[in-house]
Amino acid sequence: MQDVAPQLRGNLKSAVAETIALRILDGTYPPGTTLPTEVDLLADLGVSRTCLREALQTLVGKGLITSRPKHGTSVRPAVDWNYLDDQMLHWRRKVVPQHQILDELLSIRDLVEPEAAALSAEHASPQDLADLREALETMSSADGGRTQATLDADVRFHRLLLAASGNALMSGLGACIENALRASIVVTSDPRITDPIALDQHRLVLEAVEAGDADRARAEMRKLIDMTRVLLERARTLT
Q: For the whole model, what pTM was predicted?
């Protein structure tokens, strides 16, 4: 099959799962419809029956499809899809307009991160605070410039903050927040946009958390997200 072949040298199951998922997400296989038969999919994808079945099981786990005896495999309603799954986030970025994805991800950050910062101010352990401080120090290693190390440290800072909230479910949103950060950084890395890491604002968030000041931590995180929003709006005017 043409659109899978380049990926077949890697993980076959992942490549097949992605190919079928993209067809679901772009409407080729709409919700409520039945997927082609196993025989047809095997001929189309050119993989083994075991590989196909494992790929379909991956999609079952993400809420995209369901299989019933004598009814075949059908696409579930979109309301059942696990949109926050890391792979789903990756796949949707390939079929949904970039501005829509970024708006969605920023909205999630707006809802989650200020409260995570407030909860962290109340629940962060000494080790949590030490890890956050270490991430911030790594972010400052290039004077606010973007390198792979500082980017990874930026992502780590935000994921650590979720974990420090003491709420395991909030921590589980880490993959979504990471995708939001990395997606926005790709956009704002346009040379026409100045996008140094907002070290001072990250530091204000951490200082509020260290002080145990939930209200201030919440407010400082909102300011940090607003800074990203301004950069994304500027980037949109350049496209």
A: 0.79
